[in-house]
Amino acid sequence: xxxxxxxxxxxxxxxxxxxxxxxxxxxDCAVLAVPDGYSLAxxxxxxxxxxxxxxxxxxxxxxxxxxxxNLSDLASTGAMPAWISLSLTMPVADENWxxxxxxxxxxxxxxxxVQLIGGDTCSGPLxxxxxxxxxxxxxxxxSGARPDxxxxxxGHLGDSALGLRAYKAEENIAEGCLKRFNQPEPRIxxxxxxxxxxxxxxxxxxxxxxxxxxxxxxxxxxADIQMASIPLSDEFKAYFNQQPDYITxxxxxxxYELCFTVNEQHSAAIDAYSNQxxxxxxxxxxxxxxxSVCFLDHDNKIITINNKGFEHFK
Length: 314
Fold this sequence. Notes:
Number of strands: 12
Radius of gyration: 20 Å
Strand order of the largest sheet: 8-10-7-11-9-12
Shape: globular
Order of helices and strands: HEEEHEHEEEHHHEHEHHEHEE
CATH superfamily of the largest domain: PurM-like C-terminal domain
CATH topology of the largest domain: Phosphoribosyl-aminoimidazole Synthetase, Chain A, domain 2
């Protein structure tokens, strides 16, 4: 296929058509309308074959995950997703692969009324860059945590790490963990609600150790985390025979859950939201005025953690 035939293939299966897209694909630039009273939140992530997903991953899951990780950034900012642009680099123009790839993107995009508005295609090693745009009134930032704030995380940590193991070895790993690796769920609804109560927020992409560290750095504070409070799924605990590897759970990353801080007065509201939504929200520790992020055992002794999370150029 030619480049323009590829572009046509990308947009032909899209079902979302937003009224705020004044000019979409077909011109040098998209022309977009931002609603009055909102700011524009913008984020971009790149996924590279063999780094962010295995070479053997299905085209559908690659497309789905490429969008999900970008929507997760919007979720952690408390933004409502609106538009995306896509840059796709691939070694060959495989029509079947492209069809499945865009199917993965558009399945998730339709769930949040997100429209593809433009992008680029080129030849080279497989990589995907998506820039996501959303609207926000009161953005959640990393810099708002204050001493004595409670620290929460959504969902469970560590399942994605087991999902990757399912690719690397023939092990008896729950299908749910593989799905958590291939198709993480961006916490858009939670992020929107948290704009009412949270003082800071970040999505867990590089591991809790690393990402909570970003909150503490930007907020000029420290944190104490009770390791036993880290939320783990039944599948994760079963894999480790009920003696789970907490270090893997807090350092692997790729969870795309939200880590956020709130004043203690909002703890009841957090519990109520958790019960109503069915999404587990776990209090794992507290912000303190200074220092680093410390993980504590049952006796409140500091646990030494040598792995500080994922780094591309480590």
